[in-house]
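Quick one: structure tokens for this chain, please?
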Amino acid sequence: MIVPRKLRFVAKRRENENIRFRLYLKENADEKELDRQFEELHNELFSSYDCNRCRNCCKMYHCLIPEADIDRNAKYLGMKRDEFVERFLNQNERTFEFETKHKPCDFLQENGSCGLGECKPESCNRYPYTNQPERLQSLYSVLDVVSTCPVAFEIYERLKKVYDFEEK
């Protein structure tokens, strides 16, 4: 599997190929079969991958914190809600959702774990979403994930082999 620090570089080199593969899948893949393939590869590869050694996702993205979780997160950290929001969150002016202020994420610990512990946001738990249904409808977002997550990159590379996709 590709090492996290090389991922952005290699993914950038394969960007055009990955876009063509996305179009190939859109035209040729069966939605249910593709979902099954993504989920199968997701489960296989994540079963032996330690995300704490990478955490590119925590370094490159702003995490969404649902409104319903703010009080629980603040309490977990021994803070008042207002203090938690002021220190760690911004409210998106367009969607009004709360997201983390900084990259890398303020909750990313030195050992790669999340400082929110069992309060870790669901969006973080589900990342890179490669085991979610309807992958055919969201292949464009998969391209972004492929350049961030080594496992998602490997899934995409293996799918190219499954579909006998060769760069021409």
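The mean pLDDT is 93.
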